[in-house]
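pasting for the record
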Amino acid sequence: MLREIPHPLSGTLRIIANPVRFSDTPVEYGRWPPLLGEHTAEVLREMLAMSDAEIEALRQEKVIA
């Protein structure tokens, strides 16, 4: 039930594997757990249509990491 995946900053991580097993469609583990704030800008751009300037202003005001 455990799986090891590489992480760029933390070395190898042990994570809980998906308990569902299919013979023809195995589960793929393509990404590691995100770091704090790793996808913040991406989410703000895609979900809220914020500009890079707006996102940077939030960083400067320490609203986001």
